[in-house]
Amino acid sequence: MSNFIFAGCDTVKLAEKYKTPLYVMSEDYIKERLKEIKKDFLEKHEKTMAVYASKAFLTKEMARIVKESGIGMDVVSGGELYTAIQVDFPMEKIIFHGNNKTIDELELAIENNVGRIVVDHLEEIDMIEEIGKKYNRKVHILFRISPGIDSHTHKYIQTGQVDSKFGIPLEEKSIKSAMEKVLKLKFTELVGFHFHIGSQISDNENHIKAIRIMAQLIKKVKDDYGFIVKELNTGGGYGIHYSENEERKPLAYFTDSIIKEIEERCKEYGLERPLVIIEPGRWVVGEAGITIYTIGAIKEIPGIRTYVSVDGGMPDNPRPSLYEAKYEAVVINKLDKEPTDLVTIAGKCCESGDILIWDLKVPTLETGDKLAVLSTGAYNYSMSSNYNRIPRPAVVMISEGKDRLIVKRETYDDILRNDI
Ligand SMILES: Cc1ncc(COP(=O)(O)O)c(C=O)c1O
Fold it and tell me: Are 58 and 35 in contact (CB under 8 A)?
């Protein structure tokens, strides 16, 4: 009987050692992607900066891996920032995002001297100015702009369209108020603009469209206010392989065209080319992770479908129920058996929508078989919950064929920890 090998490890043995459900991450894979960012973006193009979007997957160990690579990190909450602080992540390489940062989160960021804060709305500038004054510190900010681009991705992971909760709309009055406000401030220094058009994007068309729009804005603020944009943050969003028809493209597919477009537009408008920042998250960790489950109840509804339930589901992977995300999976202890049956993989939650995969081809299954859902490295652990008071799985990191625990499995007592 042959078992599924992931990152050089026998996954059935991992399931036996750590129990299921279990998140397994490949450090080698993550390091490969981080290396690709260095080689094909940072070293290839001058005046560039890359930050890993930590919302995709963050633990202290992940923050250490990113720190060691020399790449920066984008955080979007006090909790993500606090994780970075705990591993002495270089604060000048942190970019702090969020459409509703609290005053406490902003204070944590400014007190710790984060490199840049991406301002999402005008009231935020007042809070930043006040805290900057308190710490007598110049705070570098970028304005997040929603450039009015509808990317071809699920509407819950589109972010750059005009009707969006993110960013300052690219519209005359809003830009004028933002510019007039910020240019008067003493402790807040605008260094540039940011946009992020969405996630799991498979081509570079919309990044290019967004850059054309942003270049016009850069020219306009130069003409109207004499303001020189020093930095343009182009966000993340590069897609990965989840299921057929989806593939992870090399980073350069996106970034070469981003740089080329910015250079051409700067030449056309007589602008100096700003520092270009990228923020990939999913592309770095998505395919680095799998989730291993044990199969429990198998229920055949004659002539309709067979539901195969696993010991996890929407609490460890909310993406299928949240935005109909598609996944592939393998029965890890039956790799040599022909896939003969069509089944639906259901989670164990008290929700009809808790389905991980509709219509998966599998060998004949028995209770106790083990299933690995693939490409679960991004937005799974980081989006997990305790719904139905189910403890979160452990996270195991594999490096050069060796496994180590990086997050312990939660216990029932962990769930009760804050109950009074
Ligand atoms: C501002 C910003 N930057 C970067 C990312 C990372 O996106 P992805 O994981 O698709 O690369 C996101 C995702 O939501 C984002 O909102």
Answer: no
Q: What is the mean pLDDT of residues 134-152?
A: 89
295 in the same domain as 241: no
Structural domain that includes position 166: 27-284
> Are 208 and 261 within 8 A, CB to CB?
yes
Q: Residue whose CA is closest, atom 12 of ligand 1?
A: 236
> Does the annotation mark 350 as catalytic?
yes
Q: What is the pLDDT of residues 322-339, one digit of tens each?
A: 989 999 999 999 999 999
What is the C-alpha separation between 276 and 291, in angstroms, rounded? 35
For the chain, the farthest-separated pair of C-alpha atoms sits apart, in whole angstroms, at: 72
From CA 348, how far away is CA 184, in angstroms rounded?
Answer: 56
Q: Are 309 and 348 in contact (CB under 8 A)?
A: yes
Q: Is 286 annotated as a binding residue?
A: no
**What is the C-alpha to C-alpha distance for residues 380 and 372, in angstroms, rounded to an integer?**
14
Q: Which residues line ligand 1 (CB under 6 A)?
A: 53, 56, 74, 97, 159, 196, 199, 235-238, 279-283
Q: Is 351 annotated as a binding residue?
A: yes
Structural domain total, the chain? 2
**Shortest-distance atom of ligand 1 to CA 238:** 11
What's the average model confidence in pLDDT over 346-365? 97
Region 65-71 average pLDDT = 98
Q: What is the pLDDT of residues 247-263, one digit of tens each?
A: 999 999 999 999 999 99
Q: Does residue 157 surpass a pLDDT of 60?
A: no
